[in-house]
Design brief:
The protein folds into two domains: 146 residues, Glutaredoxin (3-Layer(aba) Sandwich), CATH 3.40.30.10; 43 residues, 2-Layer Sandwich (Antioxidant, Horf6, Chain A, domain 2), CATH 3.30.1020. It is of the alpha+beta class and 216 residues long. The chain starts with 12 loop residues before the first strand and ends with a strand. The longest helix has 16 residues. Helix content is 31%, strand content 22%. It has seven helices and eleven strands. This is Prx1p. Keywords: Antioxidant, Oxidoreductase, Peroxidase, Redox-active center.
Length: 216
């Protein structure tokens, strides 16, 4: 079954650098980010994991648990984490799934079907750079896929988390290039009468476009 926005994130059990986990139990009542990496000891992946570790407070402040995945053995992960910490001057304190058999990668359709060089010594594909944002109900709310050659923009990942969480709490959507603190769009399902109560002073640009101050 293909995964879509709104799908329940498939559960799995796996070895990680922080011990064995049941994915749904790991998420608990939090938001979560699952993100894949083609392989250990690679330059782009090393910088990405360092960036996630550097921004651990940003994720914690938003109630988000982070979990990485790479298609290598657990023993390789443990050695690689030392490199990540040294290169980026960080402390990687989130788990990294050891998916050398590609079970989780296949479950989430993260294997590379484009780059014929992104394979291991046996010719088995590594993963692309997938990102899944999952809410406390275990529902997939965002999926982004980058090619193995392109590092992810974690400003964008955090921006989307802010938008999703704000939209769940208030009856709003967010415009192009929105950032935390910017004006928001009053949800089309909210009448003008309701909008006056919910967003005093909102402004009407067009009947279908009403802007309000951010509820943050």
């Amino acid at each position: 079954m293909s995964l879509r926005l709104g799908s329940i994130a498939p559960n799995f059990k796996a070895q990680t650098t922080k011990g064995d986990i049941d994915f749904h139990e790991y998420i608990g009542g939090s938001w979560a980010i699952l993100f894949s990496h083609p392989a250990d000891f690679t330059p782009v992946c090393t910088t990405e994991l360092g960036e996630v570790a550097r921004r651990s407070k940003d994720f914690a402040d938003r109630g988000v648990k982070v979990i990485g995945l790479s298609a290598n053995e657990l023993s390789d992960h443990e050695k690689w984490v030392d490199d990540i910490n040294e290169v980026n001057n960080v402390n990687v304190d989130f788990p990294i799934i050891a998916d050398h058999e590609r079970k989780v990668s296949a479950l989430y359709d993260m294997l590379d079907h484009q780059d014929i060089t992104n394979v291991d010594t046996k010719g088995i594909p590594f993963t692309v750079r997938s990102v899944f944002i999952i809410d406390p109900k275990k529902i997939i709310r965002l999926m982004i896929t980058y090619p193995a050659s392109t590092g992810r923009n974690f400003d964008e990942v955090i921006r989307v988390i802010d938008s999703l969480q704000l939209g769940d709490k208030h009856r709003i959507t967010t415009p192009a290039n929105w950032k935390k603190g910017d004006e928001v769009i009053v949800h089309p399902g909210v009448s003008n009468e309701e909008a006056e109560k919910l967003f005093p002073g909102f402004r009407t640009v067009k009947p279908y476009l009403r802007l309000a101050k951010s509820p943050f």
